[in-house]
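Following up on my earlier thread - several people asked me to post the actual chain instead of describing it. Fair enough. Here it is, all 346 residues.
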Amino acid sequence: MEHSSANRPGRRARPRRRPERQQILLRRGLALVAGLLVLILVVLGIKGCLDARKDRALSDYARNVSQIVEETGQTSKALFARLSEPGDLSVTEFVNQVSADRSAMDGYASRIDGLSAPGDMSHAQNALELVYELRSSAMDDIADQASTALGDVGSEKATASIAIQMQKLLAADVLYGSVVRPEINGVLESNGIEGDDVPESIFLPEGTKWLEESAVSTALESVNGATGATSGGVHGLGLIGTSVNGAELTAESTTSVGSEGTVEVEVQVQNQGDSTENGVSVSVTVSGGGTLSGTISSIAAGETETALIPLTPAPSGEVTLEVDVATVPGEQVSENNKASYNVAFE
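Reply from S.P.:
Thanks for posting it. Predicted structure:
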């Protein structure tokens, strides 16, 4: 007896997926893809922001360096133009202008030390700080020796010292040209930054004659009133007292001083000669920091005047202050022009 196919046992047919379930799975897949795309865009956006911030930091650093380098070049041109052709400058005027150049260089060095160098520029920044440390140190000594070099006593030794400082300026130029500039511009190039390359910085004129002591001596002799032209009689200054924010300093002990507000050093200088002295330069060097300068316009014979020099930035902790009153033309004794003090800033 035959059985109809409808009654034969067999596999049960698999039920079809419901359309609703397929739609749910599809929506989940699309949501996952969309989430991945959003995540990728966020990551790319963050990276782009970080890259842009890094580029801005590198550009800002390079522009700051360029500005200081350009100002340094202007100081160099003024200094060596004055040495080449002092014109009608008197000894006092010449010394004052060299002291102003020294103060400008100290300012450049402080600005260089205060630069915020991006990580890629750290090595170049260290070398740049050394460049300006050499330049600042050289200008400090040139300014300190200028008045003596223009006078009668000790002029040969002072002139030789100035010539040595010219060599230090040359060393700074070589370091900048061979290390600092190539490294800064190389970092800019590797990051695809164009138009912010730092310029050359040559403080000592190329092919310079200023490395020769004879050239320095000849230039100084052409200053009006130099070499024996100081007024007759005794010339001499004396550092008779130093205080910080009203607290008198002593060389034998450490003096405690409050560091709130503006910290100012008051240096009392006495004219111990018998002629009025003009343009007296006074400098204060802070251990671990730079040298700051001030000028007393005039001190009559036998009188005492005060140079007021702000310490910026204010020191902290225990430091040593080196105070130096520059000699005037004709001054033969300078041992009493300097003093060293230990100061604890609280």
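The chain has two domains: 47-221, 237-345. That should answer part of your original question.
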